[in-house]
Amino acid sequence: MDTPVTVKAELRSRLLVVRADLGAPYRAEASAVVCSALLALPEVTRARAVLGYASFGSEVDVDQALAVLAADGAGVFVPWVEGGGLAIARVRDLDADLAPGWRGVREPRASERRPARPDRIHVALVPGVAFDRRGHRLGHGGGHFDRLLARLPPATPIVGVAFSAQVVDAVPVEPHDVPVDVLVTEQGVTRPRAHPARPRP
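User: That's the sequence. What structure does it adopt?
Assistant: Structure tokens below.
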């Protein structure tokens, strides 16, 4: 019998191929649509401290949205890998303040970053390999984002960001998995039903 870990691994392998096969032109166009949707999202427009991410590979590129938010005066925070988890730091200029780090993923420059407190984040924008319409999220398998999201205040909205091709019927769930409250793709915004209390670290 397949375990959740096995099913996740198979789904992850398949969806990474699906996402890459969308092609760079489509991903660029769809990313622009997603950025516009994020900037119109009430959870984002009223936030003064936004946790984002530095896109890598074939992920939805949210740089445009983060740049607009930073220019408008919001605090924009980006994670970096620290041990088995993620720490976060504020960035003001994505081009100047980010550099390749763990596995080539862009992160706040080590020489400049000042660790910030996750409990002061007002909204979190998170990537994933797959999502379902109940808000369950499949990451890359390291659990880094789940551990970070579990440190946010319970009322902080978590916004999943993906291409529509990454939305599946069901994502296997384990006790440590943290669901998203909103899912944004190039095809629109989905608001899963309320979730039970998030798992704590």
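The two ends are 29 Å apart (CA to CA).
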